Hints:
By secondary structure, this protein is of the alpha/beta class. Among the domains are: 1-49, 434 Repressor (Amino-terminal Domain) (Orthogonal Bundle); 163-293, 3-Layer(aba) Sandwich (Rossmann fold), CATH 3.40.50.2300. 41% of the residues lie in helices and 17% in strands. The strands form two sheets. The chain has a six-stranded parallel β-sheet, with helices on both faces. The protein has a six-stranded mixed β-sheet with strand order 7-6-8-9-10-12. Helix 10 (228-235) crosses helix 11 (249-261).
Amino acid sequence: xxxxxxxxxxxxxxxxxxxxxxxxxxxxxxxxxxxxxxxxxxxxxxxxxxxxxxxxxxxxxxxxxxxxxxxxxxxxxxxxxxxxxxxxxxxxxxxxxxxxxxxxxxxxxxxxxxxxxxxxxxxxxxxxxxxxxxxxxxxxxxxxxxxxxxxxxxxxxxxxxxxxxxxxxxxxxxxxxxxxxxxxxxxxxxxxxxxxxxxxxxxxxxxxxxxxxxxxxxxxxxxxxxxxxxxxxxxxxxxxxxxxxxxxxxxxxxxxxxxxxxxxxxxxxxxxxxxxxxxxxxxxxxxxxxxxxxxxxxxxxxxxxxxxxxxxxxxxxxxxxxxxxxxxxxxxxxxxxxx
Length: 339
């Protein structure tokens, strides 16, 4: 179907001129935000696919960007990739995605591959942050680069999620409900998301006048690790948690298995806050209170930063975009049990 769809068809679907579609697809010239949004929606609705081969032969450019994630099994990463892909595709670029499984050697090999295949840029979630610049393959890579939510020493652009403020907001909410024994599950503090989430957790406890208890904190190697065993250990404490913040889909599912195994009810016995996209827990009962990633805004920022570099529009020097998080209230949190 996509082979028969033309720019003219996209223009008709978006109710704009062919010239406007061309400016959006090539990220050249001015178009209003409304027109750009209509064209991007029309691209998806019509299934339009740019003829990359013809363009590459004429221009000598690959019109392709590498996209590196730790593991596409992570629902957030797969949703983020899809949102970035739509925007890059609308501008005439394809994405080549690869999972690194947090293996630094694989990251270095992929960066070399991307350069040898003449890709034009890289959007990446590096696995390590404390690698010296002279040994950091991301710092040595010659391609324009946008790093997502990692603090590394390199010359490139970054999109951050404001984990600290988001998690602090979640703790504030639980404290307002009378909870003082709040458990936290999150990713490793070896990477920025883990560190920022832990800081936000401690910020919220401090504002509530609550001392932090290490027995209630579990920062896993990966957000896709299970929390079943550590949750069981917390529930067996003399003073177990009355609320839990589980910042990862598998962290949450593992924790909930242990909760159910003890016969506890949610939210009557344990209030729960998760993290993810709006539809990630749509079928959960009771409806989960969630720290929501603004995937669209983060994807828009990543694509915009990359396209600016590829089109020669970016000023010299690294740029940074910080994307906030929202606490979306469901029915999984109630006042702390008496006593």
